[in-house]
Design goal:
This protein is an alpha/beta fold and 528 residues long. It folds into 2 domains: 341 residues, Glycoside hydrolase, family 3, N-terminal domain (TIM Barrel, Alpha-Beta Barrel); 141 residues, Glycoside hydrolase family 3 C-terminal domain (Rossmann fold), CATH 3.40.50. The protein contains 20 helices and 14 strands. The strands form 2 sheets. The protein has an 8-stranded parallel sheet with strand order 7-6-5-4-3-2-1-8. Helix 2 crosses helix 14 and helix 6 runs parallel beside helix 7. 56% of the residues are buried.
Length: 528
């Protein structure tokens, strides 16, 4: 059936199947992209859908558009579901970051979270999770992976990553291991510039590649590329893995034996667009061996990329047989998740599945095992406060989750917000407030190295002599830069783009003795 369908397709229709757009607000342009350029899928990011019922109606509407194309090929919907469907829809269930699971060290918890994620995602019409992250985070200054990784141990990342893959795929989803061959040991965010992993082949085999080998052995159906250079694999200067045939075909396909879908990371990230035009990059990614080219295209860009790929095939730069093989993989995946039988979802059932009480309760139980007490030299925790004691939260977090959770325990809790880089005026005001409160909690937030201004804030508050608890919302590496802090808790609650409610609530529960810490740090804190 799949080969017959590919045989019926025009070259333009085949190329369209290999394009996945990131969500547009303009439905008319989306319809044109589906009907005129035959796009094969769309990544949902929550930018124009606000609740699960609306999301289900949205995917149904786009699937209806696909039914009006010549061959009626259904769409494949994907989403970044690194912390559950709640990553893109606030009404859905949210789980801790991967590093929180690394602290809990429980494959069963990872599987349970992945299973719930699959149930909720399929309910609204998502078929492909652009997760789990299989990067080994062994660089404390990594600005983009951090808590998105299960930890620094290739064995732990492999073990927990495989459980995530099983939980997703055994419940009807396509799992995507990312970011191949590894983005964990970088000090540069590929959204901003082009990072390099300079290690030799022996080190890559021992660390970076190990989780991906485990994922392939576990039958992962998709792998996402990284916009990172690996000189030990491909010595071409400035050539990211996404565009390297040595990485995608020679290593991933031939040496590691991966037969599933290779999807690029977003092609509009600066690691790509600062160095290559979108059209050239798309052609080079497919030449390298990518099956799906993902980007936040405008309609004009869809048109240009489609034409560039068609031209590359017609000129012989890309063999049409390679295109056929890619489209066969994509269509086979669509068939496996049932899209050719019924591409639509039951909107009326969404409310009983997505964000259900049972799912949220499970997420809370998981979150309570995903915090780590890094230091408590003075035995301050759990907090034992008198009814008249005033508690101040000085927070670098951009949202109100922390103070809301605190007020469940303390009516006299107040908050002063600072930015990720507090200015002198904010620092002075924070100290003024701290002098008039009995207990101070400082919530630090960084995705790489903790800013010097936050370090200064903690040091100055500690000097006041009040009981001070530091809660690291981002990576636990913060503690390395806070030698003055006597009590530090890691929440693993905030990554580069999100602040998660359940881990923060779990951290607050721990502060007041209502939760237990995880089994230990999944990373090593560097000496300063």
């Amino acid at each position: 059936m799949i080969k017959d369908l590919v045989h019926q397709m025009s070259l333009e229709e085949k190329i369209g199947q290999m394009l996945m757009i990131e969500q547009w607000r303009d439905l008319d342009e989306t319809r044109k992209a589906i009907v005129e350029y035959h796009i094969g899928g769309e990544l949902l990011d929550g930018s124009s859908i606000t609740d699960p019922v609306q999301a289900a109606a949205f995917t149904n509407r786009l699937q209806e558009m696909a039914q009006h194309t010549r061959l009626r090929v259904p769409l494949l919907f994907s989403a970044n579901l690194e912390t559950g469907l709640g990553y893109i829809l606030s009404a859905a269930t949210t789980f801790p970051t991967n590093m929180g699971f690394g602290a809990a060290r429980s494959g069963d918890l990872v599987y349970a979270a992945a299973q719930i994620t699959a149930e909720e995602a399929r309910a609204i019409g998502i078929h492909m999770s652009l997760a789990p992250v299989m990067d080994v985070n062994n660089n404390p200054k990594n600005p983009v992976i951090g808590v998105r990784s299960f930890g620094e141990s290739p064995e732990l990342v492999s073990e927990l990553g495989v459980q995530a893959i099983r939980g997703l795929q055994e419940n009807g989803m396509i799992a995507t291991a990312k970011h191949f061959p590894g983005h964990g040991d970088t000090g540069v965010d590929s959204h901003i510039d082009l990072p390099t992993v300079p290690h030799n082949w022996q080190r890559l085999e021992r660390v970076e590649l190990k989780p991906f080998r485990a994922a392939i052995s576990a039958g992962v159906k998709a792998i996402m590329t990284s916009h990172v250079t690996f000189p030990a694999i491909d010595p071409m200067p400035g050539l990211p893995a996404t565009l390297s045939r040595r990485v995608l075909t020679d290593l991933l396909r031939k040496k590691l034996g991966f037969n599933g879908i290779i999807i690029t990371d977003s092609m509009v990230m600066n690691a790509i667009v600062k160095n290559f035009g979108l059209e050239e990059a798309a052609v080079r990614a497919v030449q390298a061996g990518a099956d799906i080219v993902l980007a936040a295209y405008s309609f004009d860009e869809v048109e240009k990329v489609s034409r560039a790929l068609v031209t590359a095939v017609k000129s012989g730069e890309i063999p049409e047989a390679q295109i056929d093989a890619s489209v066969e993989r994509i269509l086979a995946a669509k068939a496996e998740v049932g899209l050719f039988k019924d591409p639509f979802v039951a909107v009326e059932k969404v409310g009983s599945i997505v964000g259900s009480l049972e799912h949220r309760q499970k997420a809370k139980l998981i979150a309570k095992q995903a915090v780590t007490l890094l230091r408590d030299d003075v035995g301050l925790l759990p907090l034992r406060l008198e009814p008249t004691d005033r508690l101040l939260l000085i927070s670098a977090s951009p949202d109100d989750t922390f103070i809301t959770a605190l007020r469940r325990y303390r009516l006299q809790a107040s908050e002063f917000k600072v930015g990720r880089n507090p200015d002198p005026e904010q620092l002075e005001r924070a100290l003024e407030l701290a002098r008039t409160n009995e207990v101070i909690i400082v919530a630090t937030y960084a995705t790489g190295e903790l800013p010097v201004t936050q370090r200064r804030l903690v040091a100055e508050v500690v000097k006041l002599g009040r009981p001070v608890v530091v809660v690291s919302l981002g990576t636990p590496y913060d503690v390395a830069w806070l030698p003055e802090a006597r009590t530090v808790l890691a929440a693993y609650a905030a990554g580069p783009w999100v602040v998660l409610k359940p881990p923060i609530e779990a951290a607050v529960d721990y502060l007041f003795g209502r939760a237990q810490a995880g089994r230990g740090l999944p990373v090593t804190i560097p000496a300063q």
